[in-house]
Amino acid sequence: MDSETLRIFSAVAAELSITRAAARLGRAPSNVSTRIQQLEGELGIELFSRAGKRMSLSAAGERLVEYTARLLALEEEARHVVSAGGHAGGLRIGSMESTAAARLPAVLASYHRQYPQTHLQLQTGPSRPLLEKVRNGQLDCAFVALPADFGGLDGLSELGLQGCAVWREQLLLALPADALPAEGVGAIALRSLAAFPQGCTYRGIAEQLLGVPGSLEWRVQEMNSYHAMIACVAAGTCVSLLPESVLMLSPAHGQLQTLPVVQADTLLVWRQHYATPAFERLQALLPEVPDAPTV
């Protein structure tokens, strides 16, 4: 089970198609098919379920996907560290949508100007899934906000992770222009919250603030972008919690009512002892919240 075979397996697992994986890898489909069959023979188990031309991962294949990502990431890390950065390598970065929109463009542009040989990959998502992907090696690092029930930095350490706060965000409750009564949040007539899917730290903060858990009145509209959330708030159909830095990017920011709620730190999180030159160069470009603890 060499690294090249694992790369082939990873491509087939991602595409669920021998033909598409072969095109992605620049190989003949027959070669890709043979390597998968050899891997299954070596392991003594089917990694894919086949129904005609359709493929899906078997239970064993799904387990191997995670290990493959970790093994290939470790190989890449070793090459980069041993060559002291001479091997261009890459850096797989995870980020909350808000950080990707408001904070990362300038940082990543600066990184690319200084180190154009390093291949940067960016993947966005809620904080909890991003933490899991860093833990299992699918990402090298991620920008996240720790959930309230996560256990803080001790929770990171228990997962074999470490991190430091790089930005502090002011979170605002955004409401339609005429929706904020003098009595405050508890008197808001709207009972619809626009938020990312479960796993988003800011959603958890908003739900606790508004009393959503256990309520029969509140409805959560799950969305995948802040643009959509702001548009729905402007249309008068819901409220939403979002960072001030994101709201200020929208032309609609002056047309909404906002209520400051709480400040939340954005952390850069990585696996303990992960220290490639590519990652250290990213760290050097980031600010640090002066009074925030680190682990």
UniProtKB/TrEMBL annotation:
SUPFAM superfamilies the record matches: Periplasmic binding protein-like II, Winged helix' DNA-binding domain
Signal peptide: none
PROSITE patterns (alphabetical): HTH_LYSR
Molecular functions (GO terms): DNA-binding transcription factor activity; transcription cis-regulatory region binding
Keyword terms: DNA-binding, Transcription, Transcription regulation
InterPro entries: LysR_HTH_N, LysR_subst-bd, WH-like_DNA-bd_sf, WH_DNA-bd_sf
Gene3D superfamilies: Periplasmic binding protein-like II, Winged helix-like DNA-binding domain superfamily/Winged helix DNA-binding domain
The HTH lysR-type domain, residue ranges: 1-58
Family: Belongs to the LysR transcriptional regulatory family.
Record-linked PANTHER family: HTH-TYPE TRANSCRIPTIONAL REGULATOR, HTH-TYPE TRANSCRIPTIONAL REGULATOR GLTR
UniProt-recorded name of the protein: LysR family transcriptional regulator
Species the sequence originates in: Halopseudomonas oceani
